[in-house]
Amino acid sequence: MEGTEEIHALVSSRSRPRKKKFTKSIQDEARYLVQNIENENGKAFSPRDRIGKAVSNIISIVVFGTRYDYNDTPEMLPVLEEAVRLGEGPLSLTNLARFIVPMKKMLSLVDRLYSLIRQEVDRHRQSFDPTDIRDFIDLFIKVTREEEDPEVYTEWNVFRIIVDLYLAGTDTTANTLRWSLVHMVNHPDAQKRVQQEIDQIIGQGRVAKMEDKARMPFTEATILEVFRLSTVVPVGGPHATSETTNLAGYTIPKGTVILGDLYRVLHDKNNFEDPYKFKPERWLDDDGKVVKSDKMIPFSIGPRVCLGKGLAEMEAFIFFTTLLQSFTFKVPEGEKPPDGVEGLNALTFTPYPYNVCAVRR
Ligand code: HEM
């Protein structure tokens, strides 16, 4: 189905022009984030919210074709956040969810979200040009006009996809970046090595691009280690067996719900030595080249692997390198270093609240 393919290509940044467009948006957003942090003038601050806003702006660009100023959050984002908070907790993945989640409140939030998205669709209709597909909403308008699969491309489904993209694409990547700063302030030697690579390959005169990554093995290894140690999605999405199957001597009946324990795989000492230690070097061979591992599954595996993997990897690389190109991050005087292993386990794995100082390089 052409429409579905296009939607996949749009979000997974598979097509070349899209990739270029996304790269530019991420580079611009990384600069806005740097400017925002610069306003702190080296004083202690919490990077939490501004990282969240920078990352959610990337999804806003994919979906609505626009970013928002960090002080001017559109109504939709707090409404979405509240809906996520209501649905949070380990039991939300079980059948008990309907007794735990306050459904009346949830439904009123869903109503509000739906009407906000509808307003955006209407705004897009007014300036729609089929030869210039700016974002996800335009793509939706295009496929509905072409009357392809009207039962699939309903406004309700579009609403659900948009909510999914914000849910899956914001806190995950934002938490990866929040963890990356935790590890950098706790491991100044690793931070310095990344900065040396940045200085050598990128310098101070331009912003990072994805082509740089292949020439920056220590930086790549550092990002891989953040993805591994700080598994932001500890448990994969629920799936079900399509037929009765046998695994390690256990019979699993058809239709059984299966949750992948990604955290366990990434912290198993048989897969990774000293699994709770932050060791970017584990990803480098004797020649300093990055080694891959089939145990490295923070995005899960198989046909339902994370749809946003490509986008998330681009964001992690460009945001991380731009931040370290501009600043050295430190634990503020008199404050305890942040916890690099334990964190808050909600739908995604978040570091405990912490402050940093960002010293301009
Ligand atoms: C560090 C960042 C991210 C991590 C670690 C991550 C991880 C994951 C994992 C583990 C899954 C579950 C796969 C499964 O069901 O087995 C998933 C699904 C998904 N992710 Fe991500 N993700 C990240 C960023 C993103 C971004 C930026 C987007 C949006 C563009 C996104 C969109 C999705 C979607 C739509 C799914 C559901 C795919 C499906 O069910 O077919 N993710 N992700």
UniProtKB/TrEMBL annotation:
Its main location: endoplasmic reticulum. It is found in: Endoplasmic reticulum membrane; Microsome membrane. GO terms for biological process: organic acid metabolic process; xenobiotic metabolic process. Its cofactor is heme. One of its GO terms (molecular function) is steroid hydroxylase activity. It comes from the Eukaryota. It is a peripheral membrane protein. One of its GO terms (cellular component) is endoplasmic reticulum membrane. Belongs to the cytochrome P450 family. This is Cytochrome P450 2U1-like. It comes from Lingula anatina. The lineage of its organism: Eukaryota, Metazoa, Spiralia, Lophotrochozoa, Brachiopoda.
